[in-house]
Each structure stands twice: as structure tokens, then as C-alpha cells.
Hints:
Blueprint (H helix, E strand, L loop, with lengths): L8 H16 L7 E3 L2 E3 L2 H14 L8 H17 L9
Antiparallel strand pairs: 1-2
Helix pairs in contact: 1-2, 1-3, 2-3
Amino acid sequence: MIKQHPQHPEVLKEADRLQHFFDTTPILIQEWREGCMFVRNIPEFIHMELHAARTFNPTHYFNPPLRRLQQLEKAILNQTGAPATNAEA
């Protein structure tokens, strides 16, 4: 049987904050490159990564989907010129 671990509350809180950011901020970039990753469908990527961040193994020492969403948030802030928020969580 697989042992279920609840997700850390701060991870869920950060995922909710990012979802609100992506829902309320216009995304002007058409595609996003980060390292070797190339994203063409940004809304679908956001949807999948939010789900992955909320359900990622909480015993792992960091949450890669959450980090990718924070990097995308920075790229969107740089693209739109919006004021920076507390993205350094």
C-alpha cells in the first residue's frame, strides 16, 4: 500500500498565490524558454504545473513544478513591467 503524505500548507498557499497571479495578470509572451525547456502553450503548462505542484511528493526536499511556476512568474513580470510581488518564497 502506498503511504499518503499531506502536502505542506505553505506549498498549497504558494500554489494558490501563483494561480491568482496567473488568473489576474495578462500574459503577453507567446512562448517561454527556460534552460532546455520550451513552452508553447503557456495556459496549459500553468494548469498542469499547478496540479503537479499541489500533488508533488511532499517528502521530497523541494517542489520542481512550483519552482518552474515561480520562474514563469518572473518571466511574465519582466515581460509586462508589472511591479514585483513576493515571488521569492
